[in-house]
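Q: Predict the bound structure with D-mannose.
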Amino acid sequence: MELSFRWYGPKDPVSLSDIRQCNADFVVTSLHQIPYGEKWTDREIKKRINFINKQNSKNKIILKWNVVESIPVHNNIKLRDKNFKTLINNYKDSISNIAKNKIKTICYNFMPIVDWTRTQLDYRLPTDGLALRFNYLQIIIFEKFILKLNDIEKRYTPKQIKKAELLFKKMKSSDLRNLKIAVMGGLPASEKKYSIEGFKKMLKAYKNIRDTDLKENLIDFLREIIPVAEECNVKMALHPDDPPIPLFGVPRIVSNLEDYNYILNAYNSNANGITYCAGSLASNIDNDVYKIFQKFKNKINFIHLRNVKIEKDKKSFYESNHLSGDVDFVKIIKMIKKEEKRRSINKKINIPMRPDHGHSLLDDQTKKSINPGYTAIGRMMGLSELRGIIKSIN
Ligand code: DNO
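A: Predicted complex:
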């Protein structure tokens, strides 16, 4: 495996030197300053590579940018609306400019409106570490009391709504503020912080889009971009919906084995691959993460390893320690090693992997600014635990 760490660029409070101290050999990053939909120019990409190289020589380290995560897909592409053709052309140009600079793996997702979603960013664990959490009732609270939507009866049972109302009464105003921030763009890599009106406007734009429409739009997008990726030898890696369940009445189409099966068969190409994100997939109790790995192992271009613990209601979860959640990482790492061995015919193949999120631990908790989930110490612990498994399997 290529042991990697996500880095949010020069402004990330976790520096490249910190990342190297955590024992990662590669960085996964994106040009977050470029607005969604705009082209990544050769110049901007080179500038970032030069920055990394400069830090390498200054700190006497070697870190290589191996994966772009992500080139975000603009909502107009997902909706096939307005200027989507121009946006797709920009996307194609970005792929070839990235390839010119020798980065050959690109992660992306097709989640409508927002990227990943959590409802709480500081869930205190019995160890005193802080974790990210997704509480299903709080999503109902968000829809009913923050967005004030009037169609929630269509997707939630009266019992669920009742429970959400009871929980709402117990929440402090700071909890509500945090919920609002978390869902409407407070997580790293989100495009922007939505206003309530802005969020509702997006919901309206997706109102008549069914699952099948969104799937069609994704396949049309793949028909355009995959030939470009093939030509420049880039592997695309579609990240699953996080969490893999429908939210806000809007469709989600990259959530389970059947979805991936459909998408990968609709455009069969080595360039059309997936990001195997153990934590995202495992946060829907119906997903068998081992079966999904086994089924698509030859399409896995990038791996995120993080663990979750599903809660009593079977829909909520929190991010657990890497070794103490619902996913058996010894089993998964054995599967990855086996797949790497299968691919290593003429030369050793290592699939890029990052430990994904970590808890907020020790000094992480006193830092002024952190990207939720992307702490230094928490992720260092995650990577260390994974390295222990890798070593013992070797
Ligand atoms: C959360 C991440 C997501 C993911 C993108 C991929 O931490 O896993 O932000 O990177 O959705 O495009």
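A: The CA atoms of residues 208 and 250 lie 9 Å apart.
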